[in-house]
Amino acid sequence: SVFVLASFVLSCSAKVQRFPRPGESLAADIVMIEPGGKGLNLAVAARRLGAEVDGLLAVGDDLASAFAAPALAQADLPASMLIRVVGKTGSGVGFTDAHGETCLAVDPGANHALSADHVREAAERIAAAAMVMAQFEIADGPIAEALALARRAGVTTLLNPSPFRPIPDEILATTDILVLNQTEAEALAETVLPGAIDPAEPARFVSELGPAVLARGPRLVVLTLGAAGAVALGHEGAIGQPAFPVDVVDTLGAGDAFAAALGVALARGLGTAEALRQAAAAGAVATRRAGVFDALGCQADLDQLIGL
Ligand code: ADP
């Protein structure tokens, strides 16, 4: 099974012709209220692929918290993932204009109240997993605790440090698989590359960026490159994975789908190259439909795109 250090964000988004000006109130084309959050996306994506999923997800004691249990149930995720704290549930407000530009503000709320103590209480569940997956919508303390517990129990760990902030050394030291985009990798390696890495030339990743990231702890660093694909660097060498050609509707959730599929494939014992192929297929499938949950693929969708 995979254990996800999840997050919950109730998102309220409005489609508008143009962004409202300061002081202005304008009619939206549509307003949508829906559960989300990177951590929930990871959990839903892993479950959609048939993995048994456990994890932790914190909500507050306000009205917004009422959206969490149905969201878990609908995704066939265990209600035991839910942790209730005093305070506000994570929520966000956003606008998308007629050009597809978006602007967004998020209050992490209860996600930042998920603590190392909560994680310690789940120690046995973590030790029972094949893979622990973490993301950065929660604080460093619980991530460090979960990864350390996993490491001690021989459980593989995967970190997707998004939304990016500097990664503490103790977290990097207990991360087996680090999944990040080029901007995040450059920030971590304290360098800026001229131009984008090309999956057809993984050697450039090896010479210019990978080793600086690898040296900080992980045994596998996976760089996502949007419509170009992805590249992975481990101690055995580098692998480039071109993106699968698809008709893109919106790329929302592609990164989460990619990370979840990579974790599930590696937890199932697949090799790096095959896991990377599965991840790229999951990312591509997630772009074929609008939104996140509706767009996530099942294993058959991935296999079909890969041509298995
Ligand atoms: P994020 O959403 O975190 O920025 P990316 O945009 O890099 O992440 O997407 C994650 C992965 O999803 C990519 O590495 C790629 O494999 C796949 N993907 C993303 N956009 C496309 C696309 N336009 N066509 C095909 N695959 C895509």
Outline the structure in words.
It is a single chain. Helices cover 34% and strands 23% of the residues. It has 308 residues and is an alpha/beta fold. The chain has one domain (2-7, 38-88, 111-306): UDP-N-acetylmuramoyl-L-alanine:D-glutamate ligase (3-Layer(aba) Sandwich), CATH 3.40.1190. The strands form two sheets. It has a nine-stranded mixed sheet, with helices on both faces. Strands 3-2-6-7 form a four-stranded mixed sheet. A hairpin with a 2-residue loop joins β12 and β13. α11 (272-286) crosses α12. The longest helix has 15 residues, at 272-286. It is globular, with a radius of gyration of 19 Å. It binds adenosine-5'-diphosphate (ADP). Residues 181, 224-227, 229-230, 243-244, 246, 248, 251, 254-255, 258, 280, 283-284, 287 line the site of adenosine-5'-diphosphate.
Please describe the biggest sheet, giving its number of strands, its sense, and whether it closes into a barrel. 9 strands, mixed
The span between the termini is 24 Å
Strands in their spatial order, largest beta sheet: 5-4-1-8-9-10-11-12-13
The low-confidence runs, each spanning 5 or more residues with pLDDT under 50, are none
Ligands (ions, cofactors included): adenosine-5'-diphosphate
Strand proportion: 15-25%
Structural class by secondary-structure content = alpha/beta
- What string, H for helix and E for strand, traces the elements in order? EEEHEHEEEHHEHEHEHHHEEEHHH
CATH superfamily: Ribokinase
Helix content, binned percent: 25-40%
